[in-house]
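@channel sequence for tomorrow's demo:
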Amino acid sequence: MQKLDVTAKDGSAITAVAYNADSSSVKGIIIVSYGFGEHYSMYTGLADVLVQAGYACVLYDLRGHGPAPDGRQNWFGVIDSYQCFLDDLDSVTEAAILAAPGKPVVLYGHSMGGNIVVNSLLRSSSKYACAVIEAPWLGLYVKHSKLLIGFAKFAGSISSGITVVNKLVVSDLTSDPTRAELYVSDPLYHNRISFRMYTGIRTGCDYALENAQRLNIPVYMAYAANDRIVSNEASLVFAKNAGDKVTVKEYESCHAIHNDVKREDYFRDMIDFLDSHCR
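structure tokens (generated this afternoon):
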């Protein structure tokens, strides 16, 4: 593992690490954008799977996630704007290209990270060979009322720091009790989201569904049959609107497919997809 020196467009430091990037034989380098409330260290297991398959992997922390920079207060779930997510991913991509020059670059997004990855690809995909999207947040399992959506938009416009506790439960993330305990015991795993973050992600959902036809690179989309967090219907609408660029597969799993009981089936299919597009 090596630390990457990544500076965001606004001058902030982005915490990022690369696995296996110094190997000249890697098939490609995969940048992972994780789900809401998580942090990059929760994905070292996924990085190991990718490294064993012959890939390099970059993990990084999103705004409002991971350790607070310089002891900043009111950090969890707070962002200045949704655009920060897209800008930071672009900055990490530039660092990944330098870490493994000449290798195919791939985006991987889970849940909220899937929302970010999709929106990045729809705006600019020229740097990427393909992408993997796992249970993307393109809509929620429980639909929110127009009143709540309107209030969130109003509150977020007033302040970036107004947060609420979400209602995610660990049993909706994974049916594997060992993996579930890792969420519960992790001091950096959080359940706070600001109204500004929520509104930005929701706007990203709308943009993705309305502009899916702009997708121009291959995407592997996995969704969970037992997902009670995001909307599978929204994922399938996106895939349909994107046409033959998206390969879709359902897994008998909870939301975090990579952490569920049958994750090995998902890993096998994902690696097969990557191998067919990283040459």
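heads up for whoever presents: The chain has one domain: 2-277.
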